[in-house]
């Protein structure tokens, strides 16, 4: 996989370790107040970061079976409307994305190619199921898109001094992971671990049992932003039968509340990528 595609993989996971949350020491699981699932869902939603405009510069470290490298990532977003992403390598832009709720635009600067279409590009190219709302939540450290997209029952539990909201019970997951035993876990198994005081997401785990793929996102080093907090360190760990990838993003600079350009102009000489 070339570097431009690896950058695309990162964006598709954002498109974001063993790192613990930076919160102060909390009481043990036995001291957590009992909260029903519906209450936890509402507390999670109320903790969402909802900056109208956000601009972030990241330092990104990426490690796979074959690559150990770093680059800079610039993310600009307008809440619920658009996410603009530019990846630079040694100060040269190598890829640019523009995500909206119903479309994806991508420019591969190295190969003079572009794509304009739907989210099937991400699914087919990077084997990652994603949509605008999931990407927005992963960037902001939110969890609403995951709980809102679930039509079936949600479950909650305590997890080492934190709360956890999940699509399935842990026992269902364990049974489903055994060979030839699906046990009702036929779609993605998502779980969100929440800070017990702020109810911000500490860890998001997405498990595709059938295809043996998983994505774990750990958020830490939260700092105040737009009446809540934003994680300044995020570690994405993706695994599949044939590849492992770890991406660490560290915020260099962040600002909010100021309208920013989301320009995306495709040069005439660029050739279209096949959908």
Structure commentary:
There is one protein chain. With 275 residues, this protein is of the alpha+beta class. The chain has a single domain (3-16, 35-259), classed as Lipoprotein localisation LolA/LolB/LppX (outer membrane lipoprotein receptor (LolB), chain A). It has helices spanning 3-13, 37-46, 120-126, 132-140, 144-148, 170-176, and strands at 53-64, 68-78, 82-89, 92-100, 103-108, 113-117, 155-159, 162-166, 189-194, 201-208, 213-225, 228-239, 244-256, 271-272. Strand 2 and strand 3 form a beta hairpin. The radius of gyration is 19 Å and the shape is globular. It starts with a helix and ends with a strand.
Concise overview:
The protein is an alpha+beta fold and 275 residues long. It is built from 6 helices and 14 strands.
- Count of structural domains: 1
Strand order of the largest sheet: 7-8-9-10-11-12-13-1-2-3-4-5-6-14
Q: Please, what is the average pLDDT? A: 85
CATH superfamily caption: Lipoprotein localisation LolA/LolB/LppX
Helix content: 10-25%
What overall geometry do the principal axes of the alpha carbons give? globular
| Contiguous uncertain segments of 5+ residues | 14-29
- Main sheet properties: 14 strands, mixed
Indicate the structural class. Answer: alpha+beta
């Amino acid at each position: 996989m070339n570097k431009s595609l690896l950058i695309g993989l990162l964006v598709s996971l954002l498109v974001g370790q063993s790192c613990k949350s930076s919160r102060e020491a909390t009481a043990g699981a036995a001291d957590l107040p009992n909260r029903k699932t519906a209450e936890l869902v509402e507390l999670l939603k109320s903790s969402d970061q909802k900056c109208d405009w956000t601009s972030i510069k990241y330092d990104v470290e990426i490690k796979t079976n074959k690559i150990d490298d770093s680059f800079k990532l610039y993310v600009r977003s307008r809440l619920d409307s658009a996410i603009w992403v530019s990846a630079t390598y040694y100060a040269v832009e190598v890829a640019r994305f523009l995500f909206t709720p119903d479309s994806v635009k991508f420019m591969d600067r190295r190969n003079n190619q572009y794509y304009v279409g739907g989210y099937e590009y991400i699914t087919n190219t990077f084997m990652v199921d994603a949509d605008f709302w999931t990407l927005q939540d992963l960037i902001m450290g939110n969890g609403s898109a995951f709980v809102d997209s679930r039509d079936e029952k949600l479950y909650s539990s305590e997890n080492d001094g934190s709360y956890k909201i999940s699509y399935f019970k842990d026992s269902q997951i364990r049974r489903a992971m055994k060979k030839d035993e699906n046990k009702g876990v036929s779609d993605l198994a998502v779980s969100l671990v929440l800070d017990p005081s702020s109810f911000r997401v500490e860890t998001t785990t997405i498990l595709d049992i059938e295809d043996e793929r998983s994505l774990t996102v750990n958020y830490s080093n939260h700092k105040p932003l737009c009446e809540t907090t934003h994680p300044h360190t995020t570690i994405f760990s993706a695994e599949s039968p044939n590849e492992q990838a770890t991406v660490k993003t560290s915020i260099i600079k962040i600002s909010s509340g100021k309208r920013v350009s989301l320009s995306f102009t495709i040069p005439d000489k660029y050739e279209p990528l096949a959908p």
